[in-house]
Design a protein that fits this description.
The protein folds into 2 domains: 178 residues, NAD(P)-binding Rossmann-like Domain (Rossmann fold); 86 residues, N-(1-d-carboxylethyl)-l-norvaline Dehydrogenase, domain 2. It is 47% helix and 14% strand. Bound molecules: acetoacetyl-coenzyme A and nicotinamide-adenine-dinucleotide. The site of acetoacetyl-coenzyme A has 18 residues, from helix 2, helix 7 and helix 9.
């Protein structure tokens, strides 16, 4: 199937990044968010990153202009009616996501493929909220999207081979590397990464070391580009907590219990970089 027009749902840090890479690869993109301020911020962030790419001479001013011309913000979900492909990047909550997919199933053309950028939630369950489960798939980008090469592609129980092949081809058109994974909680990336981040939070909770020292140990001692607490702030502590809860519920194993300190920070609204405070303070 030929994909020309794409809708990205959610203009937060992931949605804006996804919209940018699709537009840079030549697709026409509608960026949708239910919140006008988030939509505006998402478009501003894309503009800023493209300007930086121009300043670094990685793209020309003309390429920046063409990319922005392929991007249209919209607060109206029904604008999906002429899209061939949709990728959802709203909050990591199964009720919100199934509601979005059920609406999309009503408004999107019959041929359209519906993908979720979920970090951990079951694609099979998301697909079951539509009448086209064979055309629903997980397309899990990594943060920051313009930089990270991997896309985990998750097949739900009913995802068709044709849907998988179309999304594998799109991923390659974005100059990213697809890896196929089964529909299991946390897939591969977050099943491995998130328990490490949670354990790092436990070391702070138990007074073993300060956040700075935990990060220094992992950066200088194990060559991680960011320490786990800096990375948790970067991902968003709410997202980290939701993923741990999905792992705990999905496997029924207490080894995935979220650290109480993570829960408390989220309750306080300390969500990391996006809220200005997490394990560190941000301007
Ligand atoms: N958005 C877009 N581009 C960004 C960026 C952002 N938020 N942050 C950095 N970059 C770009 C910079 O522009 C720079 O590119 P140029 O050199 O071409 O200008 C490049 O990345 C390197 O940046 P810096 O030199 O400033 O900093 P760095 O060398 O420390 O790299 C990093 C930054 C790439 C983010 C690196 O620290 C890193 O790889 N961190 C770990 C990221 C990671 O693990 N991501 C996965 C998170 S888990 C996930 O995404 C799954 C999930 O479901 C939660
Ligand atoms: P975010 O909080 O930065 O952005 C979410 C956006 O979705 C917000 O702008 C919000 O206004 C919008 N939104 C919420 N409900 C909506 C709805 N019903 N309709 C339209 N817009 C809606 O979150 P994020 O970090 O971009 O994460 C988005 C998704 O991507 C989550 O499923 C998350 O698990 C996944 N993900 C996150 C990361 C990460 O590192 N943050 C990495 C990979 C995948």
């Amino acid at each position: 199937m030929k994909i020309n027009k794409v809708m990205v749902i959610g203009a937060g840090q992931m949605g804006a990044g996804i919209a940018q890479v699709f537009a840079q690869a030549g697709f026409n993109v509608l960026l949708h968010d239910q919140d006008e301020d988030s939509l505006h911020r998402g478009m501003q962030n894309i503009d800023k990153l493209l300007s930086r790419a121009v300043a670094k001479e990685r793209i020309t001013e003309a390429e920046k202009k063409e990319t922005l011309e392929r991007l249209t913000p919209t607060s109206e979900l029904r604008d999906v009616s002429n899209c061939d492909f949709v990728i959802e990047a709203v909050v990591e909550n199964i009720d919100v996501k199934t509601r979005v997919f059920s609406d999309l199933d009503s408004y999107a053309p019959e041929h359209a493929i519906l993908a979720s950028n979920t970090s951990s939630l079951p694609i099979t369950e998301i697909a079951a909220s539509t009448d086209r489960p064979d055309q629903v798939i997980g397309m899990h980008f990594m943060n920051p999207v313009p930089v990270m090469k991997l896309v985990e592609i998750i097949r739900g129980l009913q995802t068709s081979d044709a849907t998988y092949q179309a999304i594998q081809a799109v991923t390659e058109q974005l100059n990213k590397t697809p890896v196929e994974v089964k529909d299991f909680p946390g897939f591969v990336s977050n099943r491995v990464l998130m328990p490490m981040i949670n354990e790092a939070i436990y070391t702070v909770y138990e007074g073993v070391a300060s956040p700075e020292d935990v990060d220094t140990v992992m950066k200088l001692g194990t060559n991680h580009p960011m320490g786990p607490l800096t990375l948790a702030d970067f991902i968003g502590l709410d997202t980290c907590l939701y993923i741990m809860e999905v792992l705990q519920d999905g496997f029924g194993d207490s080894k995935y219990r979220p650290c109480p300190l993570l829960r408390q920070y989220v309750q306080a609204g300390w969500l990391g970089k996006k809220s200005g405070r997490g394990f560190y303070q941000y301007d």
